Amino acid sequence: MSETFILPGESVPAQHVNLKLGPGLLQYATVDQESRVASTKAGELHHSANNSRWWIEGNSKRYIPAPQESVVGVVTARSGEGWRVDIGSAHPAYLDGLAFEGATKRNKPNLKVGSLLYARVSLAHKDMEPELECFDAQTHKAEGFGELKGGFLVRCSLKMCRLLLSPNHFLLPLLGSRFTLEVATGLNGRVWVTAKEAKHVIAVARCIEAVDPDGGGMDESGVKQFLGTLDR
Fold first, then answer.
1. Per the record, what is one GO cellular component (predicted)?
2. How far apart are CA 179 and CA 62, in angstroms?
3. pLDDT band at 20 (very low <50, low <70, confident <90, very high)
4. Which among 22, 49, 83, 230 is least buried, having the fewest CB atoms inside 10 angstroms?
5. Are 134 and 100 in contact (CB under 8 A)?
6. Do domains 2-57 and 152-230 have the same CATH topology?
7. pLDDT tens per residue across span 171-191
């Protein structure tokens, strides 16, 4: 991925047949009906290797929903045929009861207030509340999305979440080589963790907090040293 610093209002050369814009970017049409992309906040401009995904990382503490991003949410209330879900944004998101693999009007999940969810943002607009879905948009299969049972919720910076989702980051592969664990990482500053032993769950939570750039910023050698104390 490539990155550069950008200011609000600057033009971004984001062009791709399957263009996906993340936080901090806005697509608009000029008077000549040409499609352009501009930044809405200051920060580091990032894009994927094939230039299909673009986003800006800044110092924002509040999550700004963007379409197709994965999030970890908490059900806060029942709402009609669906639920209100806290995803850490300015407004709660709406999850329809049919937005699950194989769901029908007679066969829907029975979520309760306080339930944790791993979901995908299906709609994000500044003038509308975000909407979620718990299946892959292309296959309509769960693909890991849905209710998260048990486990522990870790809160970290938005930047740390993006680092954890990078295949080149050391932390999760390192932890996975030491013990069995399951992780659901949302781009909204929340990570759900479960493991066979409680001490391993605690270790993962502490490592995420320690490696977080907004926290200790611990490197790989520091994590290895900490994990070594678990074996004593």
1. nucleolus
2. 32
3. confident
4. 49
5. yes
6. no
7. 999 999 999 999 999 999 999
CATH superfamily of 152-230: K Homology domain, type 1 (3.30.1370.10)
User: In terms of DSSP H, where are the helices of the chain?
Assistant: 158-165, 171-178, 198-211, 220-230
Q: How far apart are CA 208 and CA 157, in angstroms?
A: 10
CB 3 within 8 A of CB 46: yes
Please give the CATH superfamily to which domain 70-148 belongs: Nucleic acid-binding proteins (2.40.50.140)
What's the pTM?
A: 0.81
How high is the pLDDT of residue 135?
A: 92
Q: What pLDDT shows up at residue 26?
A: 85
3-class secondary structure, 223: helix
Which CATH number is correct for 2-57, 2.120.10.30, 3.30.230.10, 2.40.50.100, 3.40.50.300? 2.40.50.100
Cβ-based neighbours of 102, under 8 Å, separated by 6 or more: none
